[in-house]
Protein: Schlafen group 3-like DNA/RNA helicase domain-containing protein
Amino acid sequence: MPDLSTATFILPAQAQLTSQQAALQRQVLAFIRHHRRDEQAAVFVIEGDAGSGKSVVLNAVFTALQQAARSGSDPALAGLDAHLLVNHNEMLKVYKEVAAHTPHLYKKDFVKPTPFINRQRKVGGLTDVVFVDEAHLLLSRPDPFNQFTANNQLDELLQLARVLVLVFDPHQVVKLKSHWDVGMLRRHLQGHTVRRFALNQQMRVQDSSVSDWINALVYRQLRPLPQPRHFELRIFDDGQPLYDWVRARNRAYGLSRLIATTDFPYRVLDDRTWYVDAGTLHLPWDKINFTDRPWASRPETVDEVGSIYTIQGFDLNYAGVIIGPSVDYDPVSDRIVVQTDRFEDQEAMRRRGDLDDLASARAAIVLHTLNILLKRGRLGLGIYACQPQLRQRLQALA
Structure:
């Protein structure tokens, strides 16, 4: 089996869950035992920031549950029917690859939400347990193009499962058609038994001062750059030296990639090559990945620019982040400003009439995208900002 642990949420063979993660696993399994025969869905919500290890725990719990259900080692879990859903193509590939090499896991256990919902509606009856990774990517409006014609995928799943286990982070919502916030989630779960557990440790970015600095930035506040001892944080004045830095770190440490906010033209269904231009850098966007291997683990992608659609949920050793034109700096207020009209992902911004403050929701999409990208690197982060005022301010703070 390929070593997926180096680039993904899969733990290395000898690694262990942290004490907090292990406690969460015990609580989820106990919750499932208690509610496995309920007629109305009971919901366990796992919360936490990007890089807090949510998917690590979900994978561990699902594996333990399926092994117990199919081996009969735990009578309280024996015979359970369970599925894990994720609305993210690259993460789904990882889950299926793991299933191919793990006893008691099958590739059919893992599926995207829409086909699962459509299939279960035809079959009828309740599924015992449904896990949803990246539940903030569940559709919250119809999407006929992707064959989802109901109003909300969470509402559908609440009618199809006895127990739902959700991984949820409202700060990783990246499309308006999957718009979620904490209040909205609470409203949709009203009337159901709900347990919550928040993971509060940063497991990816290996320096708390850096993760604190990133958190401030995505809340539009610019602070002086920290000086971490065990993490490399650099600001670049051009995209080409950033790319050179990424390539050098990739040669030395592996798993180093260049990634960017979705501020550069591309068309998903167009076969032509689309490029990211950042200063003197001219490099192709990632393309639709038709292989079985995740984008981040393919060596040739060091010469591409990744997006949230290829990197969300994955770990890098070093991340070079291009902050595109939609994110700028206002020297009067000394704050980050967002220009949503410069954001090129028009599918993510597609208008919906049920949001009270559409402008704020669109700005949040841009900042969520930035948050996801800035928290990819375990060991280092390099940044190039396309907008001159933001670039100059970051250099001054460095």
